[in-house]
Amino acid sequence: MARWLTWVPEAEEEICGHAFVRPVERMPEPCEDNNPIGHVTHFFVLPSQRNEGTGSALLEALKEHARGAGLEGLMVRPSERSTPLCQRLGFHSPEEPPGT
């Protein structure tokens, strides 16, 4: 069973947010790698730390982990408020092909 991994940024020695990632196995495909993807959930930064780089640093840490863990990518379902942040960091909607 896969487990949830948790990241918690700190500011002034206080936890100021969190994000959880769980590896999710993909449906086997005969001609492709079947590395799991990372499902990101409960991405949150305290209002006092928003627009201070905390959210960007948190998402970058998740991306770095995904590369090192052999995850195919990260799946994020951002809120309306966090969509611009996710787009700036290279995430795209399922309807939007990568690189657009």
Characterise the protein shown here:
The chain is α+β, with helices and mostly antiparallel strands. Helices cover 21% and strands 27% of the residues. The chain has two helices and six strands; from the N terminus they run βββββαβα. The protein has helices at residues 54-68, 83-88; strands at residues 5-7, 10-11, 14-15, 17-24, 37-45, 74-76. It has a four-stranded mixed beta sheet with strand order 1-4-5-6, covered by helices on one side. Strands 2-3 form a two-stranded antiparallel ribbon. Strand 2 and strand 3 form a beta hairpin. It is globular, with a radius of gyration of 14 Å. The N and C termini lie far apart (35 Å). The mean pLDDT is 88.
Q: What is this structure's SSE topology?
A:
Layout (H helix, E strand, L loop, with lengths): L4 E3 L2 E2 L2 E2 L1 E8 L12 E9 L8 H15 L5 E3 L6 H6 L12
Parallel strand pairs: 5-6
Antiparallel strand pairs: 1-4, 2-3, 4-5
Keywords:
6 strands, alpha+beta, single chain, 4-stranded mixed beta sheet, 100 residues, two-stranded antiparallel ribbon
Helicity range of the residues? Answer: 10-25%
If you average the pLDDT, what whole number results? 88
Distance between the termini: 35 Å
How many H/I helices? 2
Strand content: 25-35%
General shape: globular
The description of the largest β-sheet is: 4 strands, mixed
- Could you state the order of secondary-structure elements as H and E? EEEEEHEH
Structural class: alpha+beta
Oligomeric nature of the chains? single chain
Number of strands: 6
Rg from C-alpha positions?
Answer: 14 Å
Residue windows where pLDDT falls under 50 for at least 5 positions? none
Q: Strand order of the main beta sheet, please?
A: 1-4-5-6
